[in-house]
Amino acid sequence: MSDNPLFDRWYAARKAxxxxxxxxxxxxxxxxxxxxxxxxxxxxxxxxxxxxxGRLEAHQxxxxxxxxxxxxxxxxxxxxxxxxxxxxxxxxxxxxLRYGYHLKSDKFSEQIVTDxxxxxxERVKAxxxxxxxxxxxxxxxxxxxWDVALVELWRREVERSALRNIKELHEKGKLF
Length: 176
Hints:
Elements: H1 5-15, E1 17-20, E2 32-41, E3 48-58, E4 62-64, H2 78-89, E5 96-98, E6 101-114, H3 117-131, E7 136-140, H4 147-171
Parallel strand pairs: 2-7
Antiparallel strand pairs: 1-7, 2-3, 3-6, 4-5
């Protein structure tokens, strides 16, 4: 880690590699548990690999509707006011999905093994694939701040699942 926490966060996010992503996307109408395996080499200790395991709990996406009726304007021109009026008239067509997650520490564990990063990675990947867990992920990242890799995993899974979730909500009549 450096003396600059902002740099450390961005560095950790950029170094996060998803090696095995969940084969299933985030659920539309229920909670999703993503079981993660995060592999990192200990800083200043070549050949010492930390394997963290835990789970991320994804809550069902919530539909957020804006309330343009409560917005007042001051110092805006007629065009902006007319646009806001248009939004008020059509706000039932404007929806946003909100995803939430929770790191479950009750299932968290970690171990340090002595081996090469590639050997440990291959063993963990093989274990996860063999398990058949459709919501398992294997990541490689930095050892500190390690949890940034989990946030990055979450961001990518939301991005990957959003279009399907929107489609399913629309088909069930819950979006519009």
